[in-house]
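Repro:
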Amino acid sequence: MELNILIFLCLASFFAGFVDAVVGGGGLIQTPVALILLPNYSVASIIGSLKIPAFSGTSFAAFQYIKTVTMNWKLLIIMSVVAFVSAFLGSTLLTQVSNDFMKPLLLVVLTLLAVYTFMKKNFGQHQEKMLSFKQQLLYAIIISVTVGFYDGFIGPGTGSFFVVAFVSVLGLDFLHASANAKMVNLATNFGSICLFLLKGKIIWAMALPMAVCNALGGFLGAKLAISKGNSFIRVFFLIVVIGTLIRFAYDVFVK
């Protein structure tokens, strides 16, 4: 792999780690860059390789959140196990079929999500819902199965989908939603990594340098999100959702 290509990939990975640590969606940055710069590699190899830096950055971001934000560990462990299995199954399906048919549906979902978040000014600004543990567990499992499978099968924007699910369904504020999303996202990334390792799809020459850069971005992004709080994360969330929307619109209508 040429050095200039690796440098561009590492820069993309740094910014992806930063964005992902704040509100998710880092895959929107590094995935298109890698697909453009590495046209001779299979999509499965690129996606599989990018799971390594994604896991690295999410790990460093999660560590920063753990030190500051209160976590419901019992619920998180259950969600992580379910999400791991779902992501593994999603990645298995990705190696068998194309995922292009999902993009028009996601385009509609993201449009509604962006409009709702913009119109509802207090969305995610404070914790609102008081749910019983049984209710939390039921909703958490549904979220883990759905978003976990999405991460393995499609990928970009997974962190953002976890955040909006935690805010709208479980009633968390943006800061707690981002913190919890990092923990479950670790499990989905690991599930996909296990599958791609078994398939021999990871390009280590690009995955390891990108992992270092993604980790640095994740560390700095989490620090900033914690210091700035919910209002900053809400704005960042809107930017990332709109970016995701543009990406899928391009895939559906142009590409």
